Amino acid sequence: MDQPKQDIPVALGGAPVFVQTGGSEGELDQWQQVTEEEAQIAYDMTLRNELSGGTSTVREFEETWRKRFDSRFAITVINGTSALHSAMFGLGVGPGDEVIVPTYTWICSISPALILMARPVFCEIDPDTLMIDPEDVYRRITDRTKAIVVVHLWGNVCNMDALMKLSQETGVPIIEDCSHAHGATYKGRLCGTIGHVGAWSLQGSKPVSGGEGGVVVTNDVDIFERACLIGQVNRVAGLDLITEKYKHLQPLGLGIKFRAHPLGVGIAAVQLQKLDELNKRRRDYIRTVELGLADVPGVKPVSIYEGAEPAGFYGFPIHYVVEEVSGLSKEKFIEALQEEGLRARSNGYPLLHQLPLFADGFDIFTKGRGPLCTPEMGGDYQGYQAGDFPITEEVCSRLIFLPVFSNPVEGAAERVVATIRKVVAHAEQLAVKD
Ligand SMILES: Cc1ncc(COP(=O)(O)O)c(C=O)c1O
User: Fold this and answer.
1) Predicted TM-score (pTM) of this structure
2) What total number of domains does the chain contain?
3) Confidence of residue 297 (pLDDT cuts 50, 70, 90)
């Protein structure tokens, strides 16, 4: 019997480009996120009982981060969500305020606003870059808008010139959510330091990870002091407040604790040293794949603004243009890629305005209190429905995510390209096959 042919897709009776086994990215990626080095520091810290409080490791890490991100203040917290919570509280986000955020992001970019009793106002993304659309933000600003959360999603970089101009004109401050984009820059400036306050997640899969953790950065004294008030209970040493304004409340602040676990910080300190290497490797891989796909119909890279240098690369989305590939549906295309051994996937994040929480509202604090109470619940929240963000809905329905390799084996990027080329070349037959 003839061997299945490599140049025929598996779905049409051929052989796969490659077979992946084990590991989340199989044998194509040799990067080991956690190594002996991280284990050693956790071991040493445990033996020293450096397990709680603002230890020297925590303090050194904050100092390193502060210097690396060229900012006046850096505070470690338990996770990215609490970093955003601290940032919003730092800006004075509170009851009755509105916070603008793209509907296409992870829920934690905005969820802290709910707990501060502020209302999320969703906006569109730029369909080419997937970043927040400054013009749409502009249209949604009201006299209640207290902050704008701009998210450097998947490691790409927002149009910071347009956003900072808008911020200057309207007086609304910018929070940069850099949870996917550790080390990204815009016109030579590090993301997280261009807006009024920056927030990072150090969660387990992030480019710099402490297992769990987060960092808040700002140059603004009041934001810094308020961020200390909300999350740094009883942290005296190393966090000297600058002004007299809140000194009478220290060291207990509001009595809320977002302080990071020292072990997580110790691990993140090791990871931070590898960030440049990680970014370089991921960038080279992504560029090789994108270049290899440049003349392939149906797949298009996500655009980058002039002067932006993406980093972190938490995801590798590409646009799928079904009209250019004989109408082969995105689902069938992904299935065919997977059969070839390529772990492509369709989902990024659910659009927030379509989640029941934001679409239908919710009586968060019971008895008709809170920012998401609809008229039936005693409030004036209008909710959202499918179709409210046509640009974002359309572009997100066309995204495909390719695997991100941090230390690909020789030829891995070329194999990714070959797989996509093979499936595209047979799109017509695959489209009619059920
Ligand atoms: C864009 C974005 N913002 C915020 C967060 C929240 O970070 P954490 O999970 O550390 O709380 C995440 C987590 O994945 C995220 O992807």
Assistant:
1) 0.96
2) 1
3) very high
Amino acid at 151: V
Residue holding tokens 């809320």? Answer: 256
Domain range for residue 103? 36-270
Cβ(80) – ligand 1 distance below 6 Å: yes
Ligand 1 center to 409 CA (angstroms): 29
Q: Answer yes or no: is 48 within a domain.
A: yes
Does residue 96 lie within any of the structural domains?
yes
Q: Atom 3 of ligand 1 has which residue's CA nearest to it?
A: 109
Model pLDDT for residues 312-346, shown as the tens digit of each residue: 999 999 999 999 999 999 999 999 999 998 999 99
Instruction: Give the side-chain half-sphere CA count within 13 A for 225.
Output: 14
Report whether residue 105 contacts ligand 1, using a CB cutoff of 6 Å: yes
CATH code: domain of residue 182: 3.40.640.10
Our answer on whether the CB atom of 218 is closer than 6 Å to any ligand 1 atom is no
Q: Does the residue 434 lie in any domain?
A: no
User: Which one, of 98, 164, 152, 88, lies nearest residue 126 by Cα?
Assistant: 152
